Amino acid sequence: MVGYKVEHGVAVLEVAQPPLNGLSRAVRSALMDAIDRAEEDDSAQAIVLIGAGQSFPSGADVMEYDAEPGEPQLRDLCERVEFSEKPVVAALAGTVFDGGLELALSCHYRVAQRGTRFGFPQIHLGLPPSAGGSQRLPRLVGAALALDMLMEGRVLSADNAAGQRMVDTLTDGDVRGAALAFCARLLQKGGGRRPLSAVMPGADNPMKFQKEIAARRARWAGDEDSAEAQILSLVEASALLPFQAGLDMESEIFAECLRSQRSRGLRHAFQAERRAARFDLPRTVAPKTKVLAVLGAGPLAVQIVVTALNAGFSLRWGARDPDILKISRDQLTAIFDAAVAGGGISAEQSEKRLGALTTGSSEEMAQGADMAILAARGQKEVPLSEGAVRLLAYPSRVKALGLRFVPPVYATRLVEVLHGPQAQAADVARAAVLAGQLGKVPVLVKSSHDTLAGRLGAAMHRAVDALIDQGASPYEIDTALRNWGLPTGPFQARDKRSLGDMAHIQPAHGRNWSAMLQEQDRMGAAEGGGFYDWSKGKPSPSRQVQALLDRERPAQSFAPEKIVHLVIGAMANEGLRLLTEGKAQRASDLDVVSILGLEVPRHRGGIMKAVSFWGLFAVQKEMERLGHPDRDFWTPQPEWARLVKNGQSFDDL
Q1: Residue 506 and which of 111, 368, 416, 432 are 20 to 30 A apart at CA?
Q2: CA–CA distance from 142 to each of 18, 129, 139, 209, 335 (Å)?
């Protein structure tokens, strides 16, 4: 677990805990013992901390945040390293993130291999550092860079100027040898310990330091309880408070953030994505796709091709109509040109990616491909090489396997893998691996047609129409859901798409309000009016529409919280139907789809987690009390009542 070897007067402590050398409780304890041993070892004058393989030790697994960390805690280990009587050098390679970076900062010196990356991505889980990172980092690199890393999750490379501020020496070769050579030079010069608790090179200009704090605080005014705002206070404290007081303040804030609903939601979303991608299938033996073909032209094909090229594929793109393929190829080039003009990629990157594309007829491009994504109709009969897997990406009934992306495909992370009745488990596993290669989060759906995002989205619109039936205003519904975190309210979204998309739906009960507005020549945003009045692309509530609605049913005001509970509760109830039907595999998959496919705010944890936070019993009663005649839709599923009876939540599914 932690190897110990003295080489040339240096005790080398090597953490070997596959796959990422994680700093579990057992590893932390073993490191504490190894440092004690090195201090007592007269043959060792310095200490090197290193990870076996290609990476320095990483932080704790996210799952550990929901359990007692156990002694010694990471802060204890970092303090033990920092206050070692002998100089400690960190030999850095791979990704040095979160707890691993906190350990590296507690060392007196840092030697890094080129390509090493540094970061504190745990801010994306709503958490600050827990072992002194908020105190040591700004002391080393200053407020501006520290805040970029701690508040925004900026990742640095040891190869650039900002990353080099993190280290004392860079090496192109063996980092172990470089660390030993560094120790030899250090000892030859009579160098000793250099703890960041005692030095502050990053705060040598106090006015500049405080100016950066003030600028960031102005941007976070009104959100003082967020982890980002708390980090601001911690970084400020690093230059003002005694070091130990700063550590104590960090520990208190970390514990507070860890308990917060925001962090719990973010951690749940992170874990749900990892769980969804596993598929509970033999993915470990599924091969990666080496040769990918996209068959068919048109908007969907273009977006998939962009995604594949951005992911580093050497891609084969075929269509049966060369003229349509040429038009699509021109659209592809325009997308990359726009990315270059906007600074998203360099001209060299664009040229390299487009150079990895081969185009031709569908039959030619399909030959030799491991996987073929059918992105347009008319491609089902194209012959594939033996053993190749065919994936239908356009809307069509799926017999074996399908992929359903969220547009624009190159900018979103979700792909639903439709498992049709003829799908083979090995091919499903290969599709999951391909999704990961494309940079997507795959969610398995046992369905030949329905998607989870489609069903949940339809449930949301059915719910908000029912609330209008009951007297609610579309504007108070949109406002409540936007304030809860949806980027766009459902009625405003309908206007942007055109009301015709939903005017044909025949509700089981109540009115089709989109169809009714169409009858009044209100077609949507493009025509200047739908549920909202639109002027120069901006919506405003329509008195005409509100008066029309009030003539159709008595107006009734709903509290914003009740609106949110009813709409999200109805979506969660539809999620239970999908689980009962066997189309969804687990409740957390529905959370992933609602976040990545329907833009439910990530910190809510998804629709199922949000209802679990509120309490299943409370939301169940609100749905039952609504009194809408669409009882099949609003009555909580039997599984809901079972969970309430047993004092459980959707987390238990």
Answers
A1: 416
A2: 34, 16, 6, 7, 38
Tell the residue number behind the tokens 């049709």, with chain if given.
420
Give the per-residue SS3 of 35-103: HHHHHHCCCCCEEEEEECCCCCCECCCHHHHHCCCCCCCHHHHHHHHHCCCCCEEEEECCEEEHHHHHH
**What digits encode the pLDDT tens for the residues 198-252?**
999 988 899 999 999 998 888 887 677 789 999 999 999 999 999 999 999 999 9
Phi, psi of 623 (to 5 degrees): -65, -40
Q: 27, 51, 37, 52: which is closest to 6 by C-alpha?
A: 37
CB–CB of 119/154 below 8 Å?
yes
Query: Taking a C-beta distance cutoff of 8 angstroms, is the pair 391, 373 a contact?
Result: yes
The residues that bridge with 382 in the sheet, in sequence order, are none
pLDDT of 283 higher than 60: no
- As a whole number of angstroms, the distance between CA 596 and CA 485 comes to 14
Which structure tokens are listed for 102?
Answer: 């906190």
CA distance 181 to 650: 55
DSSP 8-state assignment for residue 312? T
Distance, CA of 60 to CA of 119 (rounded, Å): 14
Bin 137: left if φ > 0, else alpha if -120 < ψ < 50, else beta.
alpha
pTM of the entire predicted model: 0.93
3-state secondary structure 364-397: HHHCCCCEEEECCCCCCCCCCCCCCEEEECCCCC
CA atoms within 13 A on the CB side of 653: 27
Three-state SS at 563: helix
The set of long-range contacts for 480-486, using a CB threshold of 8 Å and a minimum separation of 24, is: 480/558, 480/560, 480/561, 480/563, 480/564, 481/563, 481/564, 481/567, 483/560, 484/560, 484/564, 484/601, 484/604, 485/600, 485/601, 485/603, 485/604, 486/599, 486/600, 486/601
Exposure string of 299-312, with b = 16+ CB inside 10 Å and e = fewer, is ebbbbbbbbbbbbe
The answer to whether the CB of 623 falls within 8 A of the CB of 634 is: yes
* Angstrom distance (rounded) from CA 381 to CA 399: 14
Flag whether pLDDT at 284 surpasses 80. no
Q: How many CB atoms lie within 10 A of CB 384?
A: 18
Q: Alpha carbon of 94 to those of 61, 77, 98, 149: distances in Å?
A: 17, 21, 13, 17
